Structures are given as C-alpha cells and as structure tokens.
Sequence to fold (290 residues):
Amino acid sequence: MITIETVETLQEEIKNLKSNNKIIGFVPTMGALHQGHLSLVEHSKKQCEITVVSIFVNPTQFNNKSDLEKYPRTVEQDLKMLKNKNVDIVFMPSEKEMYPKKDTSQFNFGNIETVMEGKFRNGHFNGVAQIVSKLFDFVKPDKAFFGLKDFQQVAIIKAMVRQLNMPIEIVPCPIVRESNGLAMSSRNQRLSSEQKQDATILYKTLKNITKNYKKHPPAELQKKSIKEIENNSNLKIEYLEIVDDNSLETISNWNENKHISCCVAAYCGEVRLIDNMQIGSVDKSIKDCF
Fold:
C-alpha cells in the first residue's frame, strides 16, 4: 500500500496504471473508517485490479461549522485498517492541495438536491459534487463505490457523472449495520451507549414501515412513523419521507411507483443521523434503484 499526498504524484501513479490497462476502483471517504467503508473496499477488490481510497474531510460540504470541527479524525487507525485490506493506494491530500483557490463551481441537480438532505443542508450537495468531481478527475476510476446509507448522495453522484459525461460506473453498495440495526456511520463514534440504544428506534421504525406498508396509505404511515420516533424525547426528527427511488419525489400511493424507499434524518443529542430502507419487492437489484 502506498500513501500519496499530492495530486501530481497521484496522477503520475494513475497514468502508469492506465498505461498497463489496469481496472481501477475508487472509494472516496472522509476517514474515521468503519466496517461500512471496508465493505466498499471489499466490493472494489472483487471487481477491480487496483483499489484507491481517498481520505479527506471536505469543508465545502459542511453547512454547519461545528459539525466540521467535531467530525472524527482517526488517520493512524484508518491507514492500519486499509493496509489490512490490501488497498493499493491511499490518497490523503491537504485542504490546500484540493482547493488551491476557492472553488466557485455550481451544479444544478433539480429536484433531487432540494428535498430531504438538500432541504436541511443548504449547499451540501454542491460541496459533495465539487469534491467528488475533483477526485474523479484525479483518480480517473473505472468504477466508484458508494454506500447506500447516503441514499440521496448516490443519486446526486450519478446525476453528476451523467452531466459531466464521465466514463465511470457508480456502484451503490448495501448499508452495513451494527448488531442492533443502527446504520454504521463515522458519527456513531460521538454517541454514548445510551444514545446508541435510542438511535435504534430509527431502524425499528423503518423495519415497521417495510412490514406494514400495505396496511396504510403512504401519508398515513408517514405520520404514524414520525409520531413513533417523536415518542422518544432524546430524538429530534428532521424528516421522514417515503419517496420514489429515481425522482426522490414523495409518493401518494403504493401502486404508482416501482421502486420506493423510506428515508429519515434525526438528531440524537448533537449527532445528526440518517438512514433509509427499501420498501416492497425484496428481489429488486440495488442497481435498479436509480
């Protein structure tokens, strides 16, 4: 495993690999790695000859300065985990390396960037598109792997690749959960044991929705589910939406859409958590979601 800190060195390495027709897989991360990230690495290792992982806490996608400051950084542990997974290249640039000057690029993703996460995190997805487009340009991967915990982000990245006409396959990968059902997230490190238990209500609520969706209209089930979460005084819900997987528009009945998911965001103390779950056909391909 080699660790690279500059764009120039990375591009030289990628150029050599491309000249030898190596298939390159890429896993962009912000560090504080957990089994969810490692599962993306495993998918890349299975499908590609070379796996590149980036570690960079991107400031332009944080609409909350405090959240950026508190985001966990565990570089030494991260590198050890990636080495154990036989990652080929780790790209760890500085902020100055990634943003030698202010990035003023603006993206327009239409409705999919204004709902759910986009509604509550102004500018977040533009920041995501800024950094991921830069990384894609530097790494030039054949495939890039993203976890479906960030369901809306996957839709944004796919839209960005189409807009920029990038020859990259975006591979959505299943959510990895802790033993209690909590979706794995770097932010979970900031939760106390009691808070982790409280947070499992999000998972339990999503499971109940998938079991009972045929018994109630979407709007009624949404209302019941929000109330279920709000019954725990330690959770503050931002949204719970039942949406079409492609358009991310709220659905009005179960029969009008082929692929449906429920997405939720809530605060547990100061920690903001997101989760989602597919509703309906259990045999549909993850790739069919977008």
The domain at 2-173 is CATH 3.40.50.620 (Rossmann fold). Confidence is low (pLDDT under 50) at residues 282-290.
